[in-house]
Amino acid sequence: MSSHAIIPEGKPHPADFAAKDNPAFILYDKLKTGYEEQPIPELGPDEVLVEIKKTGICGSDVHFYNTGGMGLVALEEPMCLGHESAGVLVQLGANGLVSKGVLQLGDRVALEPGVTCRMCTDCRGGCYQICEHMVFAAYPPSRGGTLQRYYKLPADLVYRLPESVGLEYGAMMEPLSVAVHAVANKGSMRTGYNVLIFGAGPVGLLAMAVAKGLGGNRIVAVDINEERLNFAKDYAATDVYIPIKPNADEPRPAYSVRAAADLLLSLGIPTRGPGSIDLVVDATGAEVCIQMGLNAIKPGGTYVQTGFGPPDIQVPMFRITTNEVQIKGGWRYGNGDYPLAIDLVNRGLVNLEPLLTHTFKFKDALEAFEITKAGKDKNGKFVIKCVIDGPE
Ligand SMILES: [Zn+2]
Ligand SMILES: [Zn+2]
């Protein structure tokens, strides 16, 4: 098939790499973790084996750690945590290079940790992220996460990293792809857009970076935490806004209309026409943020929901209908999001370095969860993204 093939098609994969042990970081129950030896995965013909070198900690990992579940899913049995990873290819399945025709042993790769059925109408229709048969790392019921030495994936779900991108930033391609999916894919971001982003946590900050990298005009960050907003302003936001306080007994919807008007007025943003808000991304899930976003957006604008909060909330439906506001869900990432994320970093359009605030050894994984949960480390330093090394 490809002249680069280093393993002829149809031949069984050679188990010629020096397979070591496979220690894994396991969540047994909420707040109860430990290390356990796991079997080294056996490869199917189109799969590859990655030796994990770096894994980032995500809000969802911390949520599982803290509560034993997330949203409608709960831990069913002990589960290896982690899903934001990069590593080195140590074994290729029998089909060798498989789909991309470019993978070689020793390649440094970012992992896309959701395996889909490829058969259903959603997979075939190009929206594999909503496949009902999705098996996602560290998301029950699943085969476990990436905080272990070896992890296998179909060959088309690993992406070779350019020379300029370190493995720790390779691990951050996962949350960056969430931001790319929200801003570029669902949000159809264009150069010159004015973008309003709620939440200055990791995903919100990455969404700001993507909006900036793709040529955004104004990028407005909203958060209730001033320290986060100061960071956002230095990082990628052109404007920041701390919401005004609600009045006593003021209903949320009324407050949200008032706060949206205050946001626009105080930043000199028109409600429609040139300079108005083209795109809103909510990375909080908070009801008032969602309402504010839907009230601040221009008629015909696009609103993307990526944050999680209460499952049922009130939205200004009359405004949505009469102004044809387009509301879209943004769930993880889909076709083309990883390549764009990697390209944005490789070309210097998105800088991940300021977001990587802490690194830990594999044996200290628990500390990474604890400080991500607290939002501060032992010395009071602000935590954005923690990355844990693979086992030594
Ligand atoms: Zn994540
Ligand atoms: Zn499917």
From TrEMBL:
Residues 44-163 form the Alcohol dehydrogenase-like N-terminal domain. Signal peptide: none annotated. Keywords: Metal-binding, Oxidoreductase, Zinc. Its cofactor is Zn(2+). The keyword Zinc applies. Residues 202-346 form the Alcohol dehydrogenase-like C-terminal domain. The keyword Oxidoreductase applies. Belongs to the zinc-containing alcohol dehydrogenase family. PANTHER family: SORBITOL DEHYDROGENASE. This is Chlorophyll synthesis pathway protein BchC. It comes from Kwoniella shivajii. The lineage of its organism: Eukaryota, Fungi, Dikarya, Basidiomycota, Agaricomycotina.
